[in-house]
Amino acid sequence: MRRKLAAGNWKMNGSIAALEMIDQLSQAHGDAGCEILLCPPAPFLIPAREKASSGPVAIGAQTCHAATAGAHTGDISASMIAETGATHVIVGHSERRESYGETDAEVQAKAKAGQNAGLVAIVCLGESLEQREAGEALPVIKAQLKGSVPAGSTGADLVVAYEPIWAIGTGKIPTMAEIAQVHATLRADLKDLLGDAGNDVRLLYGGSVKPGNAADIFALPDVDGALVGGASLKAADFSPIIQALDAS
Ligand code: PEP
User: The pTM is what?
Assistant: First the structure.
């Protein structure tokens, strides 16, 4: 049985004061059946962990370097993230693939580094609008999955997030049939890649998830939760998404 996951990606937003939201989520969702994760900017990992203490909110980072240490100014290693008490790391977000030219091989190396440090790697993938309109969404996603997922991954150290690039921060989402088709494809390919373990890997949908569309998305087969950007910045938006996931 895969435990559902509501993951929030703050991107380069928020502040120490905004971590107050962790108290609000902890109070509202102390008995949540689903897992709740917030990924604030790296400087806030330690105060976020302190706020989260033993409550229901886990803390994760938004990227890591593939190397364990060295001359990489400005970067942070997976073991440094683990030392803060964070438990997850997002890798291969489309904004990093686009802005930093991260390739599938680099994403795979980062995911492996995260897993080696004891973190759960959340591997993001998704097609561009041009690729979807050209009918190439599925081949693109299948290639990204194959290239980005480390061999030997399990449900305990890997989560995959399907995030169509054109749906991120735009208010647009694919049809429910399109999301279901991609998730079914990812599930089948994960089983091919990882054997039985592929059945345990959680599949998140990401891209303009809001309180108003969350329940419909969570009702789809093989959607085990969401990776949420904008709507994870305020408890008033993230809380109803968590509730919808819990109720699904
Ligand atoms: C994201 O950045 O991963 C994301 C899904 O953003 P949003 O929810 O704002 O579309």
Answer: 0.97
